[in-house]
Amino acid sequence: MNNINFHLLGDILTTMGFVSSAQLDEALQFQQSFITDPIVESDFDRAELISKNRITKNKDIPLLGHILIQKGFIEEGQLAPALEIQNRQDNNLCQLSSEKLATALKVGFIINSTIDIVEVLSLIMKYANIVTGATNSTLMLLDEKTGELVFCVPTGPNTEELKDIRIPPGAGVAGWVLENQQYALVSDTKKDPRFYSQIDDMSGIESKSLLCVPMRSHRRLIGVLEVINKKNDDCFNEEDALLLSIFSHHAAIAIENAMLLKTIQNRIEKEKLIEKKVAESERVRSIGTLASGIAHDFNNILGGIVGFAELAKLGAPKDSKQYAYLNMLLDASDRAKDLINQILTYTCQSEKKFSFVQINIIVKEALKLLRASLPKAITITENFNCNSTVMGESTQIHQVVMNLCINASHAIKKTGGEVTVSLSEEIVDHLSIKYNQDLVPGTYLKLSVADTGEGMPPHIVKRIFEPFFTTKKKGHGTGMGLSVVHGIVKNHKGYIFVSSKPGKGTAFTILFPTVN
């Protein structure tokens, strides 16, 4: 039994093969049931915890060894050698020099003083060498899914090439240590058949001697810690093994704590992002519902206005002022109809007639129309690398392209500049972080419209898809253009993203799901 971390009786019995992990867990749960006053969250006040004096309330908790015997998991004859090993481990610890033991404990406290995972790993590698007098060290974490050991923080000439290198289960001294849960002392690697010689080829280090210990945290194996080549060509000894085992136990706890904090931080950030998106979605939905209701009511009113205007027009002489005024009234009514249709498109309540559409053809047609109307100071650049097909409505997609390009041209109308329209195919997987976590994995056609204009500050970017929101002067826009674009994209099961910074221009990216 060569592992100082196995000073607990349950771990020793498990490693000796007398009890299984499931049997040990059952016995520990049974022992836990005798603790009649469990700690709850409200008890974390230190003064209150001490005043309750929990320890004195649980004097009759049965010993683990007795529980295992009573349940028939072990015999009394098996308990004695396990207790003997436990005593021997304690004696070995007592024989360590106080100076070296103090060093191991001191560096253990140092690595537990931070909860930044990168800093924790760096400190572990630094102090593993100090504790044992080694020239190099390697930390390998266990991939619980595959059973492989993964190089995380190696040292040596080729450290960058070694990162994320995987060792097959059971391979090398490290694999043996993990499987047997014991430390391994190798005084001469050339004479040890367990040595994985390919590592020297990759690391650029000639391993002469090494010491490898398992890393455990709360009865859970998380990897191995290996030190290579002791200074002055000495060999690692049992004392080094005990010191590194103590140190590795502290290191394992530090890694677990840092990873736990990172997980919690990621979860909090994710929840904040979800809350923000839900709030934005609810706000836009409520505005859309209001706009839709107004549009329907206004459409009914407008129907009466148009009807009576047509009747009045029939009775008015064509050369009269009344006839001209009625024509102006009907023209204004037509513009109002267009605005209502835009609102209904934004709220996804217009009728959908989808078919197979090649967006590159629609984009080219739209750009031909735009070039004829734009001043020479504005350049439109095409960058088409895709002719994928999507399910959609060609008129609506044409409207999307026109709106985005017109907005881009307005952004550079005063100073001149360039509008770049790009088409490409984008494959999105579960690991993609370029867009957002709501994006369904798959193949998309990416339409991008970017300008070299003044850009927008963040508080404007947040509101650009809201209906009737506009930065243009009164009478120069309804504020429905981007709202309609957003509604059409959503209607096509697509996604739209905007990137803009003051002085850096603006880029709109739309992803439409492709079809065969």
What does this protein look like?
With 516 residues, the chain is α+β, with helices and mostly antiparallel strands. It has four domains: 1-95, no CATH class; 97-277, 2-Layer Sandwich (Beta-Lactamase); 289-337; 355-515, Heat Shock Protein 90. 50% of the residues lie in helices and 18% in strands. It has 17 helices and 13 strands. The strands form two sheets. Strands 7, 8, 9, 10, 11, 12 and 13 form a seven-stranded mixed sheet that branches. A hairpin with a 6-residue loop joins strand 1 and strand 2 (149-151). The longest helix is centred in the middle third of the chain and has 77 residues, at 238-314. The chain is elongated and about 120 Å long. The two termini are 62 Å apart. The relative contact order is 0.07.
Q: How many distinct domains?
A: 4
The residue fraction in helices comes out at: 40-55%
Q: Which residues form runs of ≥5 with pLDDT under 50? A: 1-6, 39-44, 53-58
- Radius of gyration computed on alpha carbons: 36 Å
Oligomer: single chain
What is the N-to-C succession of helices and strands?
Answer: HHHHHHHHEEHEHEHEEHHEHEEHEEHHEE
| Helix/strand/pairing category | alpha+beta
User: What is the arithmetic mean of pLDDT?
Assistant: 77
CATH C-level label of the largest domain: Alpha Beta
CATH fold-level assignment of the largest domain: Beta-Lactamase
Write out the CATH superfamily name of the largest domain.
GAF domain
Shape: elongated
Number of beta-strand segments: 13
Number of helices: 17
Distance from first to last alpha carbon: 62 Å
Bin the strand percentage: 15-25%
Using the 3D structure, state the CATH architecture of the largest domain.
2-Layer Sandwich
